[in-house]
Amino acid sequence: MTRLNKRPALLLFLLVLAILAPLGHGNYIIYVLTSWLIFSIAAMGLNLTLGYAGQISLAQASFMAIGAYTTAIMTLAGWHWLIAAPVGMVLCFLVGLVLGYPALRVKGHFLAFVTLAFNTLVFLVLRNEDWLTGGSYGLSSMPRPDFYLFKTLKQLPFYYFTLAVTVVAALVLWGIVRSPWGRAFKALRENPVRAESLGVDTRRITLLAFAIGSAYAGLAGALVSPLVQYIDPGSFGLSQSLRILLMVVVGGSGFFFGPFVGAAVVILLPEMLRFTAGYYLIIYSALVIVMLAYVPNGLIGIGTRLRERFWPQHRARGDLAKGAQLK
Amino acid sequence: MKLVKLLAISATAMAIAGAAHAADTVKVGMIAELSGPGAPSGTNWRDGTRLATEEINADGGILGKQVEVSEFDTQTDPQTSRALVQKAIDDGAYAIWGTVYSGSTMVNMLVAQQNSVPQFVGSEAPAIVQKGNPFVFRTSSGAQKGIPDLTSYFKRTLDAKTVGIAWVNNEFGKGGHDVFAAQMEKLGIKVVADVASEQGQTDYAADVSKLKEAAPAAIFVYMNQEESARFLIEAKKQGLTMPLIGEVTLTEAKVVELAGDAAEGAIAHVGLTASATSVPGIAEFVTKFEAKFNRHPTHDAIKGYIGAWATKYVTEMVGKFDGEAFSNVMHGLCLDAKSYPHMLLDTCWDEHGEMSRPSFMVQVTGGKAEVIGIVNSN
């Protein structure tokens, strides 16, 4: 009973913290915090695909690219962000379905390779179709959304706008994970054969997880576009996909708040380590290696572990006893 | 409670110390590619600015204030570079030095512009000075200026009828490729092979054999440093006999070092070169740089050096630290090497921030780029 009361209080506390975090800071910190939120959304999507449905995707950055370019092209043509962003998301959802349909015939690292190829393909299309995407030069000066009374041109309002979008996206995902679909995703990850024997249409459910995950990347892309106000194909390469994968794994795949923690590590940690000048990337990489070696469940996993150790009466979630595995 | 008090006191103390500090220094943000694929360029740029800063401070600083430079690494990532320019400006930077990669500059120059902060960049993509940003200034000529100087070499010196282009498909490479191809068409020289490659590509076997098959009279090579070196090595392996001609990067110290023997005979048009030791300023710069860093400088080092010194010269002309006034004076300004020795060469900026100054044709002989001709600025 006490736990039930504690959880909403904790969430409220975190939300207040997120609201207060940028106050009194310069534009740089606000910018970094905003990109943390955006990458949390992209990582949330991948967490659904990887952590809940157990499929490795290396194409998350290319879905971000689809969302970002769609939003950029439409807002530059005078459409409002509120129309452009959903169009980008729907497009990602559809592309996710079309890619997933043949791709999800294979699993594990084979799927990783297929999505890797897709990532490269999107990169090449963005770069070579100059007439639409501006080629290597990219697109610039995208307007930031304007809601009449609330303009997001300055960094701080844009942060709150991103925060609001993130909260909505997280609530929707919360709903999805707790819906029959969410249960089916987890069943699939734990034991596909058993899931199928229980009447779960594994193919359709995997496809759905993949497409919803892609739509989340699209939403993240739709926010990157007005944040940076410049996009080019190089920003959505394979390394970006790997970074998002790292966020999910470091944070704790299969945990709802894992992506937030993971994105914080990947985005905020190097920035915090900058004072070490020439060594910061070395320290950052070493920390990531140590984390993955000692807490393969991700940082969120530490909490569960500690609780198990000191308050063993709390039973760990059975479905996560083995952790989300990369196979 | 005690802790809170302590924190409050130390914060106040720091603020006071900061204010006192701010009075006799002026802050500058140095943002460059210190890691990732741009590191060869970025670290040279940084070392050029370091050398200049040391000299400027020894010379009494800018308007009597010592220059305090904060250095930031962009990891060759445009989005990070934007955040860092923002950080430098938040910290009170009066000017920005960097970045070198055009893709990064395109993003971060918007931030400097919004804050009216003058920015000296090492980038050469044409688009940078075509966006109407009054606060961005080059430290070397853009591709749309440098390449036409080079093309007369193809026509007059080589009398080439056909030409091949090997280029890297990023902002930098595409900018140069488009200008070069247009120039060739104007001169009636036929492009018989047009080979694009990727940033970070390691295998040039297919590219070189395609060029070999097309057998043009000369090949224009337009890539970043590491890619240029790999291309030259493969060209030597496959025995490419036609002259390989580049703009700026192809004969650079870093490329020659990486490519070794394979760089022998490569020709390039360079806006700046550390091998133009017949120019007294450059000879002196090279000696100082080698003494300090124990290696040969590249043209990026000279660019950083010039950017830093131009900040001092122009600010003192303006007489105060004012970005708007700085930008007004910069447009249409010429600094001659006699009165402003640290500019090394006579240098002018036009109303878009584009720069012009005499340039050189160089060829690699005996592991060193030697000047084979001087091209006057257009």
Can you characterise this structure?
The complex is a heterodimer of chains A (about 325) and B (about 375). With about 325 residues, chain A is an all-alpha fold. Chain A has helices at about 1-20, 25-50, 60-75, 80-105, 110-130, 130-135, 155-180, 180-190, 190-195, 200-230, 240-250, 260-270, 280-295, 300-310, and strands at about 140, 145, 150, 230. A two-stranded antiparallel sheet of chain A has the order 1-4. In chain A, strands 2-3 form a two-stranded antiparallel ribbon. In chain A, α2 (about 25-50) packs antiparallel against α10, α3 (about 60-75) packs antiparallel against α4 and α11 (about 240-250) packs across α12. The longest helix of chain A is centred in the middle third of the chain and has 27 residues, at about 200-230. Chain A starts with a helix and ends in a 17-residue tail after the last helix. Chain B has a seven-stranded mixed beta sheet, with helices on both faces. In chain B, α8 (about 225-235) packs parallel to α9. Chain B is globular, with a radius of gyration of 22 Å. The chains are: A mainly alpha (about 325), B alpha/beta (about 375). At the A-B interface, α2 of A face β2, α3, α4 and α6 of B.
Oligomer: heterodimer
CATH topology of the largest domain in chain B: Rossmann fold
Mean pLDDT value of chain B: 88
Mean pLDDT of chain A: 87
* CATH C-level class of the largest domain in chain B: Alpha Beta
Report the sheet-strand fraction of chain B. Answer: 15-25%
